[in-house]
Design brief:
Radius of gyration: 17 Å
CATH superfamily: Glutaconate Coenzyme A-transferase
Number of domains: 1
Distance between the termini: 16 Å
CATH class: Alpha Beta
Shape: globular
Strand content: 15-25%
Structural class: alpha/beta
Length: 255
């Protein structure tokens, strides 16, 4: 068994964050891979929700969907409601975890998938936009961000708040009317980050094997504190990697 690459490590560590008897709103790519792996390994009663309006599908190994609106995403699904109903389930409190990525993330967990640059109308880069990301960040009981760890992604303040986390920190989220939810942790290719309970600033919770706290700080565009205890994640096991690679044998998302 060859050693995991960065995407495989990210998917395995992300999958471990999911629990049995819960519901996860997962986008395609690494979040869906992680959810499918969790369902195969340790959370057989995990229910996946896919943005296209699909509840409880079974993802077939080697048949990973590349869109939220294709037939492979609906294999053996429990329900196929309208797309708006998928978000209404979250609004009603039925979705425990939202899995998200993002082009930029700031020290309070806010995510930008809209524009890079100070001028919204004349940005340096125009990104895909929100899709359902704002709804996921606003309505799920908990949000976990899954992303590569690069300094250009981790910025002090996002250029545009597409998806709100803790906004300006402290009680800012509640003051804005978002009375529950929020980003609980950020799983990256270098470690796991969580948020200080009082200030809501991002901090280092765990490092991956062979990665130091200093390396994480060097690859982050703002200062990071540490949790009271910084742990080291367990490396992916052989069977985790085998199951993951079987899900994506063509390596469309695993690189």
């Amino acid at each position: 068994m060859t050693a995991p690459n960065a995407q495989e490590l990210l998917a395995v560590i992300a999958s471990r964050q999911l629990r049995d008897d819960t519901t996860v709103f997962a986008g395609v790519g690494v979040p869906l891979l992680a959810a499918a792996l969790a369902r195969q390994r340790h959370a057989p009663r995990l229910t996946m929700v896919i943005e296209g309006g699909i509840i409880g599908p079974e993802i077939a190994p080697g048949r990973l969907p590349i869109s939220t609106n294709e037939m492979r995403a609906g294999r053996r699904a429990t329900m196929l409601p309208a797309i708006t109903e998928a978000f209404l389930f979250a609004q009603r409190g039925f979705v425990d975890v939202g899995f998200m990525g993002g082009a930029q993330i700031d020290q309070y967990g806010n995510v930008n998938t809209s524009v890079v640059g100070a001028d919204y109308w004349k940005p340096k880069v125009r990104l895909p936009g929100t899709g359902g990301a704002n709804d996921i960040a606003s309505l799920c009981r908990e949000v976990i961000i899954v992303t590569a760890h690069e300094k250009r992604r981790f910025v002090p303040r996002v250029d545009f708040v597409t998806s709100p986390a803790w906004l300006g920190g402290g009680g800012a989220r509640a003051a804005a009317g978002l009375l529950f939810g929020g980003v609980s942790r950020v799983v990256t290719t270098l470690g796991i980050l969580d948020f200080d309970p009082a200030s809501r600033r991002m901090r280092i919770e765990a490092t991956h094997p062979g990665v130091s706290v200093e390396t994480i700080r060097e690859n982050t565009g703002f200062a990071l504190d540490t949790a009271p205890i910084v742990e080291t994640t367990a490396p992916p096991s052989a069977d985790e990697l085998a199951m993951l690679r079987a899900l994506d044998p063509e390596r469309r998302f695993l690189g």
